[in-house]
Amino acid sequence: MQITKQELRDFAAQIGVDLIGFAARDRFEGVPAEVNPFSIAPEAKTVIVMGKRITRGTLRGPEEGTNFGDYNLFGINWLDMDYVAEGCYNLVRYIEDRGWEAVPVFSNPSAVAGYGVPVRDGAPVPDVIPDFNYAAVACGLGVVGVNGLFLSKKYGPRQKLQMIITDAEFESDPLVTQTICDQCGSCQRGCPLGAISQETTIMDVCGLKMPVAKVDYSLCRMCKNGAMGNRVSDRGEPDRCAALCGRNCMIHLEEAGLIENTFENHFRRRKTWAIDVKGKNVEPQE
Q: Does the keyword Transmembrane apply (predicted)?
C-alpha cells in the first residue's frame, strides 16, 4: 500500500510529533559508512527524521540557576527515551501496517561508535551510529549552527530527534536555505570555559555549507552552567541545549526573529550567571 508524505505528516501531527522531514537515499552519497544510516538498512530508500520540541519552560531552571533536574528529565531522559521514542515507534507501526519496512534509530549524539568487528567483508564495524546533525539537515528541518548544535527553523536548538529508515520511497524535502544561524558569536562569547573556538570548519550537506566551530568537549563535560552529561557514554558529547551557549543561542534566535516558535515575553529577564571550571562565579559576556 502506497503512503504519501502528507498522510505520514498528518498522522505524525495527530500523535504529537512536532518535526518530521524526509531525505531520499541520494542525499547520503559519500557519507562515511560508519555514520551512514543506509549501512543499517542497505535496501532502504528514505531516511525520515522526526522529533519533539524541548519546551522553553524546561530551560527556566538552568537560566535562573535554581533547578537543573527538570531539564534532565523533561529535556533529555523522559523526552527522548519516552515521548519521542513512542512517537517514533508509532510512526514505524504506521509504515509497517502498510507493508513497508521501517527501522527505528535512537539518537546517540557523539557516542563512541565502531567497537565491534565487521560481520562480513566490506561491512562497517558495529555499532553504526548515524550522524543525526547531517540527517536532520538533509531532511530539510534546519541547519547546524556555528556552535555545533542542530538548529531547526521552528525551535532553534530546542528539540530531540530520532530517525526512521524505510524502504518506502519518498521525495526529499527542500533544504533550509534561509538564515537561522547568523554567526552572531553569542555562544562563543558566552561560554565561561572558552570551549567554543573562533576557528571553524565547513560542514557540507548536499551543497549547503555551514561554518561550524571547533568545540573542546573535554571542557564541556566539566561545564556547570547547564550542560548535562551524555546519557549513553561518558565519552560522548554532552547535552548543551540548557548550557549557557545553548540558552544564548536560543535567546538570540528568538529576538532576531530567525525561528518560528517565539513568545510574548523575553526569556532572559535579569543578568545571567556563570561558573568557571573550578566552580567559581565569573562575569559572563553577554
A: no
CA of residue 235 relative to chain centroid, distance: 18
241, 54 in Cβ contact below 8 A? yes
Tens-digit pLDDT profile for residues 66-112: 999 999 999 999 999 999 999 999 999 999 999 999 999 998 765 55
**Do the Cβ atoms of 262 and 183 come closer than 8 Å?**
no
Classify 22 as helix, strand or coil. strand
CA distances from 99 to 40, 91, 96, 136 (A): 19, 13, 5, 25
Whole-prediction pTM value?
Answer: 0.95
**Contact at 8 Å (CB) between 43 and 169?**
no
Total residues found in the chain within this entry: 286
pLDDT at residue 286 greater than cutoff 70: no
The residues with which 50 forms a beta bridge, in sequence order, are 20, 162
- Where is 215: in which H helix or E strand? strand 208-215
Contact between residue 83 and residue 184 where contact means Cβ atoms under 8 Å apart: no
Q: DSSP H helical segments within 97-243, as ranges?
A: 132-138, 186-190, 217-220
